[in-house]
Design goal:
Layout: E1 6-7, H1 12-35, H2 52-57, H3 59-62, E2 66-79, E3 82-88, E4 93-99, H4 100-103, H5 105-112, E5 119-128, E6 134-145, E7 151-152, H6 161-166, H7 168-174, H8 176-198, E8 202-203, E9 209-210, E10 222-225, E11 230-234, H9 239-247, E12 252-260, E13 272-281, H10 285-304, E14 308-311, E15 314-317, E16 323-326, H11 327-335, H12 345-355, H13 365-376, E17 385-388, E18 400-401, E19 404-408, E20 410-415, E21 418-425, H14 430-445, H15 456-464, E22 469-475, H16 476-484
Parallel strand pairs: 1-7, 4-6, 8-12, 16-17
Antiparallel strand pairs: 2-3, 2-5, 3-4, 5-6, 9-11, 10-11, 12-13, 13-22, 14-15, 17-20, 18-19, 20-21, 21-22
Helix pairs in contact: 7-8, 8-10, 8-16, 9-15, 11-13, 12-13, 14-15
Amino acid sequence: MADKNTIAPSENGEQEQNINELRQIRVDKLTALQEAGKDPFKITLANQEYHTTEVIEKYNELEGKDVSVCGRIITKRPMGKASFMNVHDRDGKIQVYVRRDDVGEEPYADFKKYDIGDIVEVKGYVFKTKTGEISIHAKSVKLLTKSLLPLPEKYHGLTNTETRYRQRYLDLIVNPEVRDTFIKRSLIIREIRHYLDSQGFIEVETPMLVSNAGGAAARPFETHFNALNEDLKLRISLELYLKRLIVGGMERVYEIGRVFRNEGLDTRHNPEFTLMELYQAYTDYHGMMDLTENLYRHVAQAVLGTTKITYNGVEMDLGKPFERITMLDAVKKYAGVDFNGIKTDEEAKALAKEKGLEFEERHKKGDILNLFFEEYVEKHLIQPTFLMDHPVEISPLTKRKPDNPDYVERFEFFMNGWEMANAYSELNDPIDQRERFKAQEELLAAGDEEANHTDEDFLTALEYGMAPTGGIGFGIDRMTMLLTDSAAIRDVLLFPTMKSLPNDK
């Protein structure tokens, strides 16, 4: 049977009626408190001396001593002259024993009218019940915030995914494991910063609103800046501004920030997401592989206490050396096709047709090789793997391999069949870079909305000279998904992009 202070699952109309009725009961309670001069919303300060888990962990030290905790009432069991309740805060929960003779007759009468969801301050001494549960014997309970809307039944009834994402605040209240995921996300970002700072990198910030959104193959969002009467775009990458800083002599820089790509929604894609990019002068993509391996290992150990992680029942070991394989060798291994023997675009297209792969007429041999990789190889890259040496056609900002200019010094880092990072020996030849931009412009003219525009200021910066540089970018969200065993990117974004409801517009 549902608690009268909570909402039981029901048909939408009935549930809405229940919510309205329960809300009115709570509003009436608030009005009565206000008329009695006990308005909780006039309280501006509370004494949060301890968090609940701290009281439990320090029981031997705190037994019999007075403590003060603050949190939300999640369960409440009134029993005449004495009652029990569970109070939740950021870290966990603790049981509170409230007796009329200890808190006073009038305060106890007020307490009995408190609802599940109300936020309170509890002062009392620490003890163990007869069943051995660490609890607080209340000397006073103060109402800090009146909750006007009921929580889902029995505080674990919020299972509707749509509601969880739209009302993340409610999700965080009633599903403690969700809160744990976002605490881990914060720790992951903290440890990334800690590791990079220890390696001599400097954290910087670059513009989000740009006139030329480059650095990745993606369609940008567009807006208009009224003050300058100019059309601008939201950035799709951090790359080109960070490279300008390398030109300026900063040598090791990184940024963690939001980027925006006007693309679809699925379990691994959200139009705004968190990207980390770094650039290091005087190294190449092999140096970036070493850094990536060490960084992932450090973060897993620091946040999870182990380098072995399990995602959807599959164990991946970050403690072992990561595999390194070229795209050519990977396609040969998993698709049985040796692109070393394919010399022309026409041969590549004929092979794609034979295998039933869809391609566009503008595609060249390198594009076809990438299609084979996506179709036959990606799904096999479960353990940490560096996929190396991509074709130049799909790598417009990357330095060519000196011994094979059809390919570039680039890698993508894969785990669980997902691309986790993308890295280059950065192209620092301004003449070659201009030709790459020219090829991108031709793709734009042919209808490719994800191709890059020429960035003249970036080319100017390169003409002043950029040191040999290694760079990498990886999505914080996918990394968090793996390290927290979360099924979808929306599970690691506090407020994922959702289609607006009619009353939101």
